[in-house]
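Revision sheet: structure tokens.
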Amino acid sequence: GINAEYGDREKISSVFTLPIDSLKSAYQVTVARSILQLPLLDSTCDFVASNTQLALADLYFASHIAKIQGCQVDIAGIEDYLNSEIAGEEASMNSLFKAVTSLSNLEMTVDSSVAEKIAAKVKKEDTVMAYSLAYLASAVLPGDVPKDLVDSIEDVAHRADTIGNAMSFEGGLMETSMFLKGAAVLSQKAGKAALTDQMTQRFANYIVSNKDKSGKSNLFYTLVGLDALSSGSLVPTHLIVLDNSAVISESQRALKVSLVNPLGITVKDSTAKIVSAKGAAGQAIFAPGPMAGGDGVFEVSASGLARGVFSAELGFELPSGYLAPDNSVVKVKCVLPVELKNAAFKLIDVDDNRVITSSDLSGGMVQGKADLSTRLIFDFTLLDQSGEVTLHQVFVRFTNTKTKQNVFFIAQADLKKKYTVDLNFRSAAAKSFGSVAGEYTVDLVVGDATLPQAMVVDVATISLDVPDSKEPAADLSKQAKPEITHLFREPEKRPPQVISTVFTALVLLPGLVLLVVWAKLGANVSNMQLSLPTIGFHGGLLAIIASYINFFLGVNMFTTVKYLAGVAVVTFLCGQRLLSSIAAAKKAK
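Predicted:
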């Protein structure tokens, strides 16, 4: 059963094996091998004995290993230490969970006040992981399970994200698997299913979708989630098609399926039946009724064969506590061979309107000659056990025996399902054959998804005599093509240096005129007072001008705006202070 789900048992065993380099690694290896029912490693107990310290994390991992493998954890004061961790006022939900489960695994007494502390702490932390750990811890405590804690399972499940037909929590695979494990053990102790059928199936879809991911941690938490789903109050199931039997043929008429739990273990005491199995045209290949077999492995033989793809809907009767598969429809493809019938191969001289060569292919391959005045007509039908059929790919292939060049022509079917290839060599010589004369083999190639394999029929060998084209024949080989060179447009010719110099002088002339006008108006630069606002204002103006020049020389607009934003603020504030001081000085006079 596990092999059906995971395919390669040795590959999984190689992930959870030696070397073990930490107690956490030993814990994951032991738990994973226990879930997969693989032989446990004898050296794990020795590793636990020599590496376990009186620390909460160490005791948590060691106690799990001891419970599964029967190891001894001989450290003085374990019980007092763990109960002191529970009694601590600042104990987190994670600490309470590890201390409680460690005491339970080692069959030691748990402080009776822990149930109240768990209830208070989980409400305070109010996270998915806190609730998951609370479920796991409460499940191993003596006495009845608090009703409000069981009722909270469905409420917490509503926090999950739904994508398509899968549900998961924001924390990913680890958080989702830990929640499912906690919900499963608490539901079992309470004796009721806390999750709805739809939730259980969607969580299962998410966990199963992760089973092919690489990494030891991913695989470990996938196994934890699958184990939780397989041991909960509601166990989802899904279908596996065995032995590639979703493809049936004349030699393989049986559809074989297996109904398994999330760990790939077949569901005992289950039965299956065919509800319907019809194709697009309404034809049926399986008769409705019970399937042979039982205990999760079922088989049914096709009552009739018809080419096509069929949807086989299955129904199941399952033991109490099992959910029917989310998808109980199996796509079944029926493949059938075809035969070439009613073949008529003709080479006709178009100028004389006479048949040069004619054959029904019963005598084997046709030998013929063709030139520009020749026309080839090849008629045929394809038959299976139901009569004439049309298929997806039907074409005639010409292969030059010397150059191995292939030329293809599609065969067209009419309303009576008769195929025809009509080829005029006068028009096809240059266009299709590249004016390459020589000997060509002619094959009929038939391909379709409903064929067991492609059909290739040797039809003829034709000696083609065509004149060489004035233009070289198209190179249809796989050789490298000539290098493509591209000449970019040469830059425009620059103007003479005299023109550039005159233009620059004209651009600077307005600045010279500005200085002359200032002198005429009596601008008095010597009257400027040296102060911080004065220096800041005029320095800011110079900085703004410098930014414009820098932009002109190549700095992009966004960088220029960023510089101007800072300079403008300083210039504005200094200018305001400068103008205020000038106005105050004039008023004092």
